[in-house]
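Table S2 (continued). Query chain:
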Amino acid sequence: GVVLTACVLLAIPSGRAAEAPAAPTETKTLADKPQPPADPNTLAVIGEYQISRDEVVRRYMELIGPYDGLDVERARALTVRDVVLELVAEKAMTLDARKAGALNDEMIRTAMTDFRGRRLVNLLIGDYIQGKVSVTEEEVQAAMKANPRLDETAARVTLQSAKSRQVMDMYYQQVYERVKVKKITENFPKAARIHMRLLLQPKIERAMQFVMVRQVQEELTQAEKDMVLATFEGGKFTLLDMFNALTNIAPPRRPEDLNTPEGIEQFVDQGLRLPVLVVEAEAKGYDKNPELLTQIKQQEDMRLLGKAKMDMYQAVAEPNDGQIDAYFAAHKDEFRLGEKVKIDQIWLDTRAAADAARTHIDAGKDFEQVKQRDSINKDSKPFDTYRSAEGIFGEPIFAADPNTVVGPIKGLFSGNSVKWRIVKVLDKDAGDPPTLDDQTRNRVKWKLWADRRLRAFDRVKADLLSRYDYTLYEDRLAAIRPLDLP
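Corresponding output:
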């Protein structure tokens, strides 16, 4: 159910339509009605989550382009309220995924263990090396003399990094001995054989010969994943840990000797460093760091939402050949290859400035001279633009003839900002008439598939919004107008 406030309106119980309550008992007293958060940038609340103005504007700008396959009609109809409801639904998807135990998914669990461990160790190291590393001016000058390519700053950073590594290597050795690391060397030959099996006898198709994350998940038995390669007080290092560490390394940089017990041992030695230091960090209480806990929660939410969306999208049927043929026949112009317009632009901060610039051009002033006098981006050069690059703002440009001036119109200036512009169309290329070759067929398929996924999300969103209580602050929403320019 949704609570609409402006900033204080009527609470609507979950599952009920947004009409007046059926009985006076449904109406809450003024004291019971939800009060908006003190932060005026909060536009909606669902559970523990607050949807901020910045988050909404950023998503709105993403949804209106630029990107290939943009549904311009849908994007033009988009409202700030639509965006807020989309974000609320995403938070509800995250809540659903957490309740369903998705944090136990192997991919998520592995990623979160690595994320948490690295940040814990960074906190530990950051505090430990404080005051233990110093670089003298004499050392800096000596480093610059030994390597003339280093300036003073680079030389100092290089020396500090080297000394920090030395300090941490000594510290790690102390921790290593304290937690009594024991390598289970009798398992190393078996680990080498398993690595060779994944490398040379994959069960799934691979374009290149290297061990993939999916292989680790699907081709190792649970007993193999659990095989212990080392133990220490407070933890252990398993074959799964080894392969997770391996798949975090870019294939060209992976060790080439993991077909030998000696290679396995060397890699285990390297892989132990993170979990051993995590035990030390936990012993010192860094796992209670409030900022770290916030970062972990945010990362969990991101991965839970990603999994929920992936599961939803995987359930969407792939378009068949007949559907691809029919869509292409009805929308051929969408798939023209090479359609582009060469333009020059004058960017302006206000409509009044844009009107004044257009008046000067209409009076016969040279476009370049007006740009150099009035534009907020005087260094811009003529360039080719495409429909996908213009988001929802491209129609007037692509409808214009060469050697004509368009505007003032809005456009995507940089990042997530929209500004006024005067556009001179220098040349046009209508592109090649499309034929349904393999490349175009693939484009049509992905366009249809994307449309189906949008509709699937709309259905899921409607279900989530009917099941979860949330609050929209309507007066604050009404004040957000990303495309209203001065």
